[in-house]
Design goal:
Layout lengths: L6 H5 L14 H13 L7 E4 L3 H10 L7 E3 L15 H8 L14 H16 L6 E4 L2 H12 L25
Parallel strand pairs: 1-2, 1-3
Length: 174
């Protein structure tokens, strides 16, 4: 599941620093409440979130119907763009000549991020939990979609759009 809409979404700014004041907007809270209602009958043993507070905020709202532990996993963090607090459009312009491989301002490339998320998926396969909710970011969700829905080349990752509080259901094989 992707987190609810944030103030930085509204402003079109990059964020991968957990200490920044990025939070769910009223619209984001409403999205999370709607997702919580839709998922209220699901059975979760645990919720995993990224280190960024917007994922935890979203998880807390969904968790009102579940009361399960919420844990942070660093590999779920949004891509480290190198453009903290700067316009997303500036980041896209900076990587446009090689969007998969370019690292800017000490950030990670899209392929670096993909490898981090795949490492998380490998870790997930050996966990004892049978049913988890993962609350993460659009960039992270793109990797999940490509991995589990198949037929998506790396160059197509940016074409995948995942709305705020959109969720998908996947079954992991061990």
């Amino acid at each position: 599941m992707r987190h609810g809409r944030t103030n930085y979404n509204d402003l079109g700014l990059c964020n991968d620093d957990p200490s920044r004041n990025v939070y769910l907007t009223e619209a984001g809270i409403a999205q999370a409440q709607s997702a919580a209602l839709a998922l209220r009958d699901a059975t979760f043993e645990r919720i995993l979130v990224s280190p960024l507070p917007r994922t935890y905020q979203t998880a807390e709202i969904v968790n009102r119907y579940h009361a399960v532990p919420i844990a942070v996993h660093a590999d779920l963090a949004d891509i480290r763009s190198g453009f903290e607090g700067k316009p997303v459009s500036d980041y896209f312009a900076a990587i446009s000549h090689d969007p998969l491989r370019v690292r800017v301002n000490g950030g990670e490339s899209l392929l670096d991020h993909k490898q981090r998320v795949l490492r998380f998926i490998d870790w997930l396969r050996v966990q004892a939990d049978r049913t988890l909710l993962i609350v993460a970011h659009e960039e992270t969700m793109r990797v999940f979609v490509a991995q589990f829905e198949g037929g998506i080349e790396d160059a197509q990752l940016r074409d995948i759009h995942v709305g705020n509080c959109e969720y998908r259901h996947y079954v992991l094989g061990h």
